[in-house]
Amino acid sequence: MGDRKVRRRRRSGGFIDVLNGILTLFVIGLIAVGGVLVYGAAQFYGDGPLREETVFRVESGNSLTTAAQRLEEQGLITNAFIFTQVARRVENNTAIKAGDFRIPAGASMSEILTELTTGNPVRYAVVVPEGWTSWQVVQRLSDVGDLTGEVPNLPAEGSILPGSYDYVPGDTRQSVLDKMQTAMTEALAEVWESRQPDLPLESPEELLVLASIVERETGVASERPQVAAVFVNRLREGMRLQSDPTIIYGITRGQQTLDRGLRRSEIEERTEYNTYQIDGLPPTPIANPGIEALQAVANPDSHDYLYFVAKGATPSEGHVFAETYREHQQNVARYREIEAEAAAQAEAEAEAARRALEEAEASEAGDTGGN
């Protein structure tokens, strides 16, 4: 009887010991898990190891795991596992963007995750100025070191819409060019639909050609509708366009600059681009016109001007317009006077600069002009 009671007490005591052991292990486990969570939170939300701002690149198609591994390799975070686990299980935020991101010094994992998922990548862009030729655009694309591949064929003149085009480093040059050409196709179609109904132009392609001439004739934005109207008036009257930039394009094909004035022989030579010698429009655009030049041709000013000439010695001064040839000749005469005065002033300034240099050299040599 007594032995049974002893055995029962032993069994009861053993069960309690086991239960106490389990509870102890459970508590230790909780403490361990809590410690891990506290450590992970401290690592994720605390200051990071980065000592100075840097740019981190996420390649197109990179997963969160790949990005985390590269962040750790580059010393931006201390633990890729903690970064991915907290991002997935706590922040529920794994949709990272492609591109380059500026990561400030001391950025936490949390801040880096926010930057990669909701921040704006560093902007990279290729800028095409209005009036550039396709050859110039390809040269600029070739000079962008962040782009890859080559442009196999020179794009058609006028097929590129000038503007600013974003890209991600590693994009191909052809893909950026494709964006430029798609933009021109869409812009030209839209402008053609909104044109005045009585224009002497038969197709969007003719509008594009005339817009390229307008673009090359004036760099003053406010003048474009006025200049466009002069050429539209000439087409209506059956007059030749007589545009110097068309002659120049016929000589250079847009692949170099003509750093001199036109020769008489070039003006008198009949080529497919010389609008002093041919009727109507040249066969192709002579540059890539911007949206404002396209719109100016589609909706030119209403006036009776048939002529224009530069107003002053610099292009920014614009042009002066005339309805009659007599008035135009008077404007040309005034321009020649201004041109001569500007040339004389430039020569005088150059001579003054030469004298100043000569006097400085003489003074350094100890030649004071005395006996």
From TrEMBL:
InterPro entries, alphabetized: MLTG-like
Keyword Lyase: yes
Compartments where located: Cell inner membrane
Region feature (Disordered): 346-371
EC number, UniProt record: 4.2.2.29
Keywords, alphabetical: Cell inner membrane, Cell membrane, Cell wall biogenesis/degradation, Lyase, Membrane, Transmembrane, Transmembrane helix
Superkingdom field: Bacteria
Annotated site (Important for catalytic activity): 217
A Pfam family it matches: YceG
EC class: lyase
Reaction equations catalysed: a peptidoglycan chain = a peptidoglycan chain with N-acetyl-1,6-anhydromuramyl-[peptide] at the reducing end + a peptidoglycan chain with N-acetylglucosamine at the non-reducing end
Membrane topology designation: Single-pass membrane protein
Transmembrane segments: 21-42
HAMAP family: MltG
Function of the molecule: Functions as a peptidoglycan terminase that cleaves nascent peptidoglycan strands endolytically to terminate their elongation.
Protein family: Belongs to the transglycosylase MltG family.
PANTHER family, per database record: ENDOLYTIC MUREIN TRANSGLYCOSYLASE
Full protein name: Endolytic murein transglycosylase
Native organism: Devosia albogilva
Gene label: mltG
